[in-house]
Amino acid sequence: MSSSVFFVLLVMILPTTSVSASFPEGFIFGVANAPGQVEDNLSDIWLDWGKQGKIRTWTQTKAPEERLQFWTKPEIELNLAQELGANSFRLGVDWGRVMPKKDQFDEQSLLHYLKIIKMAKSRDMSIMLTLMHHSVPKWVQEQGGWHNIETKKDFIQFSKKMISLFHDHVDWWITFNEANVFVTMAYTAGIWPPGEKRSPLSMTALGPFRGDSIKAMDHMSDSHNEIYDWAHKKYPKIKMGLAHNMANYTGKSFIDRLKASFVSKVMNWRFPENVRGRMDFFGFNYYGAEWLKGTQIDIDPEEEYSEAGRAIDVNGLYDILKEIHIRFKDLPIIITENGIADAKDAIRPAYHIEHLHAVQKALEEKIPILGYYVWSLTDNLEWSDGYCPKFGLVAVDRVTMERKPRMSFDVMKTIIQTRSISPELKKTVWDQVLSYQGKDRLFCKDHDGITSYDEPKIRQFVKKDWRFNR
Q1: Residues of the chain with pLDDT under 70
Q2: Dihedral angle sign, alpha carbons of residues 114, 117, 122, 127
Q3: How many angstroms from the chain centroid is the CA of residue 373?
Q4: Burial code of 157-169, b = ≥16 C-beta within 10 A, e = fewer?
Q5: Which strand (E) or helix (H) includes residue 194?
């Protein structure tokens, strides 16, 4: 009997006399993906990066360029989202696909994106559309990417076209997904295309001094502001924001915590502050803590992690929700991504439940949270980590492309259907976590939390209670 079937039977026989968390009518339960991670027939910078041997496990994966076949078979993912009960679907438009050359749009691609959007809408899901999700057209990369001020004009041209075409069908607009992560990985660490490596000073902003990567990120925030002003003048009811990466930057020593405070100012708050007053909602992606040790992120042996090297820190989500509310009073908040890479599906069910408890606690305190998007519905290409990290509620057989929902799919489906979390469900999934503690698992990240392994290594599930406790 599969764990998923066992879970369904268990939920049916357990008494549910109370709830430990509940969510209001209208609360968004969504799922999210990105073109570069799920679309086939896509000749983009990530395909080139894989062919150059820069994506881990690329050569060990059958037909890696197929990704999730979301371009030719979008109904597979959309049907799974509908079965889950999701009431919103977050997807992106690949800038390079629809604008293959400077000043030139591909009308057939635009029509196909419209078709996919309508397919999602027909399944009773609202649409959140991302304009840039960790990828630029090849011609933009050749002209210097976001270092080149010309790219700002090109992105605004692209964005205006998308908004003009799709505004009647899109409920929530995201200009940039994790601009802070993109510039760090692409222009400083050199792990993402185009692979530029710079000193950490490139991510430094001290008064008038701005490093090269910070300047690139500022070009992106300036673009957001211009797009926002144009869009709200033309379509006053449009809703636009970010999907900004937020982490609890911290350390075990006083010095490391001091460094973490500085990093947080740049990574967590610079971009949102630069677009203050030009967000209809504060969208952010949250995966956990980043433990700093010396000059780098550290995989701490005492902490529990996802396979992708993100430390679980449920309390950190609550703390960030509170700080956003303090800094951006009354601005609605959407958690645009939250999830964990966990091939065994050992801790994912509890991970989502505990983070939703943090959300519910914040809601009780009148913090205006509109919704929560799971990353991800299905295992996909995780950028330079390749296909090693398994973030999906649904597993994929990379040979046959067959989908298989995991136990966490059924857990999330139950939560969405009931708009609540029962104490019995909470106990069941935590008991599973306890049963795995101390056992072996695969791990995809090196000790620096950034570099990926060519072959996954063995790490143990940590014996630690990481549940929400605020």
Answers
A1: 1-17
A2: negative
A3: 9
A4: ebbeebbebbeee
A5: none
Secondary structure (3-state) at 336: strand
> Of 97, 132, 134, nearest to 113 (Cα)?
97
Q: Which residue has the tokens 């509940």?
A: 22
Q: At what angle do helices 407-418 and 348-364 cross, to 10 degrees?
A: 20
**Locus of tokens 């075409």:** 165
CB proximity list for 189: less than 8 A, separation 6 or greater: 197, 450
Residue for token pair 């989502």? 352
Sign of the torsion formed by the C-alpha atoms of 344, 349, 354 and 356 = positive
* DSSP state at residue 281: B
Domains of the chain: 3-15+27-460 (3.20.20.80)
Tens-digit pLDDT profile for residues 389-408 = 999 999 999 999 999 999 99
CB of 112 closer than 8 Å to CB of 105: no
* Phi, then psi, of 27 in degrees rounded to 5: -65, 135
Q: Is residue 302 within 8 Å of 462, Cβ to Cβ?
A: yes
Close Cβ partners of 146 (under 8 Å, ≥ 6 residues apart): 136, 152, 183, 187, 216, 217, 219, 220
Q: How far apart are CA 34 and CA 24, in angstroms?
A: 28
For residues 448 and 213, what is the distance between their CA atoms, to the nearest angstrom?
20
- Which pTM value belongs to this model? 0.95
Strand ranges (DSSP E) for 306-415?
Answer: 333-338, 369-374, 394-396, 403-405
Neighbours of 184 (CB within 10 A): 23
Inter-residue contact 422 to 407 (CB < 8 Å): no
Q: How many helices (H) and strands (E) does the chain have?
A: 16, 17
Residues catalogued as catalytic: 178, 337
Task: Answer yes or no: are the C-beta atoms of 147 and 215 closer than 8 Å.
Answer: yes
What whole-number distance in Å separates Cα of residue 51 and Cα of residue 222?
33
Helices of type H across 1-63: 3-13, 35-38, 45-51
Kindly report, residue by residue over 171-198, the tens digit of the pLDDT: 999 999 999 999 999 999 999 999 999 9
Distance CA 466, CA 97 (A): 42
Q: What is the largest CA-CA distance in the chain?
A: 63
